[in-house]
Amino acid sequence: MSPDRLAGKSILITRPLHQSGNLAARIRELDGEPWLFPVLEISDSENRQPLLDLIARLDDFDLAVFVSPNAVERVMPLVLKEHSWPGHVRVATVGKGSAKVLECYGISNIIVPEEGSDSEALLRMPQLQIIQNRRIVIFRGNGGRKLLGDTLRDRGANVEYVECYRRRKPEVDPLPLLKCWRDNGIQAVIVSSSEGLNNLFDMIGETGQQLLRATTVFTAHDRIECRARELGIRKIYRTPLGDEGTVQGLLEYFGKIQSH
Question: Which residues have CB under 8 Å from 114's CB, separation 6+?
């Protein structure tokens, strides 16, 4: 692959700001121009007491599930501040990105899907099939999908959710982005969550929505692709998981365009 394959390409990254740095750096290395427009902000929960109370009785559980790297980053420092992770409490997560962060905190033997990075993929894991009477805690943000907890309960587990961070839509002025976009300044949009896509659609208004529908959206997830199609977006390119998977998808897509 030519090292300048992304030269002249402006690429919109919609992730939370603190999760965009590595991908933006990789795009710059390939002579592309990342445009950071976060459509989610991550903050601490307004009331952390329920999380602290649960951490105090972490020994009572058999399994802890982290739904995202944000959950890991909000929970593990609080746990390790008081004591080490209880050896009998297994750890599971929906994706390899979260698993890597867990490993940084010394957690090993993590239950994580080899294929996919969502609740459905985790629920297919053999370790989560026979879980009658197991006590499971799910660390997550505000709200979120109920599929994981509901399915584990249907399988006989005792499940508790605890909120460890909050997601919200940022208040930002979209006009600089829209001006650049109208001038053919954005050639690709990277979307990493359905909630983020909904926020983006709302934040950029009708003019931006028309531009979005004319631009290729890159995602690694089925649910995001389905939501994009519901919003009238037809130019969708599926990438492998992770930052390197996203970069690989960008290189493949623009490589094909250049070869025609």
Answer: none
Q: How many domains does the chain have?
A: 2
CATH of the domain at 148: 3.40.50.10090
In a domain, 5, yes or no: no
Q: Is the pTM of this model over 0.90?
A: no
Beta pairing partners, 179:
none
Tens of pLDDT, residue by residue, the chain (260 residues): 455 589 999 999 999 988 899 999 999 999 999 999 999 999 988 899 999 999 999 999 999 999 999 999 999 999 999 889 999 999 999 988 899 999 999 999 999 998 878 899 999 999 999 999 999 999 999 877 889 999 999 999 999 999 999 999 999 999 999 999 999 789 999 999 999 999 999 999 999 999 999 999 999 988 899 999 999 999 999 999 889 999 999 999 998 877 65
Q: List the one residue out of 254, 248, 190 whose CA is nearest residue 217.
A: 190
Q: Judge whether 88 lies within some domain.
A: yes
